[in-house]
Each structure stands twice: as C-alpha cells, then as structure tokens.
Amino acid sequence: MIPMHRFAIVALMATGFAVRPAAGMRFPRHVPGDTAATIRFEVNGLSVILRRNTANDVVAANLYLLGGARQLTESTAGIEAMLLAVSERYPDLKANQNFLSLQSQLEGTENRIAVARRDYIEAVDVAIVRDQLVSLARERRTQPDDAATELADSLLYRDHPYLIPPAGSEASLTSITVTQMKQYHAQQLVTSRMLLIVVGNVDRAQIEKLVRQSIGTLPRGSYKWSTPPPPTTSGTALALDNRALPTNYLLGYAAGPPATDSDYTALRVATAVLSGRLFTEVRSRRNLSYAVEAPFLERAHAVGGLYVTTVAPNEVLRLMRQELNALQNETVDPAGLKRLEQQFITEYYLKNETNADQANALAKAELYQGDYRAADRFMESLRRVTPEDVRRAARQYLRNFQFAYVGDSSKLDRSLLQQF
User: Fold this and answer.
1) Which residues pair with 100 in a beta bridge?
2) Looking at the structure, do residues 167 and 291 belong to the same domain, yes or no?
3) Which of 25, 193, 16, 45 is nearest to 109 (CA)?
4) Can you tell me the distance from the alpha carbon of 187 to that of 199, in angstroms, rounded to the nearest whole number?
5) Which pLDDT band, with edges at 50, 70 and 90, does 293 fall under?
6) pLDDT digits over 154-177, tens only?
7) Which of 75, 277, 330, 364 has its CA 20 to 30 A from that of 173?
8) What is the mean pLDDT of residues 47-67?
9) pLDDT of the residue at 8
10) Are residues 247 and 395 in the same domain?
11) How far apart are the first and last CA of the chain?
C-alpha cells in the first residue's frame, strides 16, 4: 500500500530485492558458530553468506551495494539507480562481455547478478535510462500515495541522511553525466561495499571460484560500514499538500526502536493489532475507507505508522485516536495474541518458501540486526512478546507522529493531529 521508494541499499541484479539501511551492520572476518547449512566467508573483501539448500536445483544469488543514501548528495541522488538501469539494458549476459556476471556460470540462477563495466557505460544508454527515470520521478510527484510517503519521510528524516532520495529527483537525474557515472563506478563499486547472499544447492568452493572470476575482480576498496543514526523527532508535525481530490490521503510515521532491541518485535505486533482494529472500526463497521492500516516499516530503526485514504479524515482521526488509546492503556487478550502469533508464523513460512525468499530473509537479518542467523530466531522472538510488551511498545513508540496529508485541507481539523 505505502510505496517503499527510498532505497538506501541497492541490489545489483536484474530483478532484485532492495532493503533499507541497517543498524548494527558489521562485517567481521569470521563469524563463530556458523552452521553446516549456512556459512559466511570473504572473497577479496566481498562478504558472502551461503545457505546450502539441497531441496531443489535453483540457486538464488542476491548482491547488495551497501550505504545507499549516505553515499549520495542532493546532486548525485539517483546515480546508483541509473547504473543499475544501464546494466539492465543488456539482457543476454552469456554473450555479452560488458559485464562482470555470475549468470553465465550458475545455471538455474533465479536472479542475475550483473555489474556493467565502467568502460561500457555509453551515452546513448544513459540518455535512455535518464528519460525513463525522470518520467518516473514526475509520476511519483503526481501520485497521492507517493506524495504522502515523500512528505512523511521528509518530516521523519529531517536532518538525516535518508532525506536524500536514492531514486533521485528530476533535477539530480537530469544533471548526472556519463563522466560522473564512470567516476562513481570507479570509486563506489568495490568489493568492501558489497554483500552477496546465495541460497541453493551449491557449495562454497563453487561460489568462491565464480566470485573470483567475476565480481571478485573489482577493486577491494576501503569501505567501512558505520551504523546510521536513528531518526529524531520532537512533537507532532504536519506537512500539507492541498489538492482537489475525491479522497484524502493521510500518512503518519512514528520512530521506533532499533532492530537489535527486543521492542522491535513488540512494536511489529502492536501495529498488527492496531491494523486489525482500524480495519474493523473504520472500514467494516463505518465504511469510511477502503484502505486503512497501521503500517510497520521493517528498517534498521523500526517505523510505526497510521495510514488512511478517506473522504472523512476528521471522523477517521477520532476513531484512530480511540483505538490507539485502547492499545496503549489496555492489555490485549492473551488468546487473541496467540492467534496473531500463529498467523505471523504461518506467513513467515509462506514468505520463505523459495530460495530467493530465504536470501531476502538472511539479508534483512544481517543488515538490520548485524547477524544473518537472527533470521532463524524470528519465531522465538515473536513467541516471547507478551500483552504487556504490546502495550508498552504502543505507549513508548506510537506517539509524536509525523503526518503527511494530501487532499482537501479544508476538510482537516489540524487540532486532531496534536492528539497523536
């Protein structure tokens, strides 16, 4: 529902996965306690996590370029997106020598890993890609959902590196030159800035050989990860985009705990409980919206939220405040919490059926919690959440909302927002 367009870690692949920046992200030379199924090692400074899965012959390989927004400035925003898009203009990787690629050697890979060589970044390809990305940037500005997300981000991440949109703006995308892209490639596409996740029926020796022959030939560089700062807010804030729309869009973000904190899972559960209650009260009983929820943004520092599109924003805000009060001052039913826990577990298994899904889960755990093995501890942390944990997390974090409103501002009573 809510677009996640501000990527701060870029996945370098044809059809890939991009995740948000992470807290506690570290890349030690050796991680003790690796299991036989999942191991970690390095090849020329490139960190590799390999999960051996013999259930099928598909190999999923995802490559992540770390740092994202913190590597950019306002004038270079979008340069990594342009590099990725230029790479995607070469579909036949087996026949094309302009890439450092694993696709030609890992038969059955689900995701291609391709990095365009610097000398083959051509002006004609850059011009085509630039036009496409500028068009997308203009479209994002006209879409109410995208506009609300951008406004809410601008408030939550005020004076923060994530204020820079890695997807770029019209101004930055238009100004980026071929020379800049080649320079950025030379400076930033280094193995110390990369994380490779491989899941499938393949062993370490095979992966090490393939990496050394391909992306492992890139310069090592000297990139060092440092934990991004948490967002800081003081009081409720509002950003308005007054438009004559048939419905109004309201999105509020509230800063949560780091992924390494036990309250991270408690807040995830609290927003799920609140989402269910809002759906019942706002949509089912009163038919005031076709889309209402309390989103949980799975980032290095969690973000809880409130979202609705409605013709009656004031009435919905009163209901939201009512349900949030109940969550913050009453304990949820233990039996209901148990059912929700089982629902989470079922969804977790469904979301991790394929090798690519498992690679994504390992990446999130490594990038958000500093330990890929945390992916296997999700259900354990979920079972530890108590009704009191839910109430405490709701009280502590679901406050000081940073609201974005896109629609008819005359229909909004701004004083209602101060209650959040």
Assistant:
1) 115
2) no
3) 16
4) 29
5) very high
6) 999 998 988 898 899 999 999 999
7) 364
8) 88
9) 31
10) yes
11) 22
Q: Around Cβ 66, how many Cβ atoms within 10 Å? A: 21
Structure confidence at residue 109 (pLDDT): 44
**Phi/psi-derived region of residue 126, left when phi > 0, alpha when psi is between -120 and 50, beta in every other case:** alpha
Contact between residue 144 and residue 134 where contact means Cβ atoms under 8 Å apart: no
What whole-number distance in Å separates Cα of residue 101 and Cα of residue 94? 8
Query: Residue 259's domain is classified under what CATH number?
Result: 3.30.830.10
Same domain? 182 vs 280: no
User: Residue type at 253?
Assistant: Y
Burial class (CB in 10 A: 0-12, 13-18, 19+), 203: exposed
**Structural domain containing residue 157:** 10-217
How much is the pLDDT for 146?
Answer: 94
- The answer on 244 and 277 residing in a single domain is yes
The residue with greater pLDDT, 103 or 201, is 201
Are 16 and 109 in contact, with CB atoms under 8 Å apart?
A: no
Specify if 333 maps to a domain: yes
* Sign of CA pseudo-dihedral 327, 333, 339, 341: positive
Q: Compute the Cα dihedral for 381, 382, 387, 392 and give only its sign.
A: positive
